[in-house]
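Researcher: Please translate sequence to structure tokens.
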Amino acid sequence: MPLKTYLLNKVFNRKCRLNGIWPSARLPHKHNLRQAFNNRLIYSPEDLPPKVDLRNDMTTVENQSSIGSW
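Model: Translation complete:
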């Protein structure tokens, strides 16, 4: 059985599990986020290109050696 890890929120006196997902019991406050996701597009593998170059959409890598990152 895996070890369950929790994060304790002392402000709201709540315990949140870190290694699992609990479904939300409430809807979002914003109305446009309450949409149903059943009207999505589904593509077949034949409809998609064989490969895509996303390098133009990527951000540059920053040097983080000053914070001890290797």
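Researcher: Any highlights?
Model: DSSP finds no helices and two strands in the chain.
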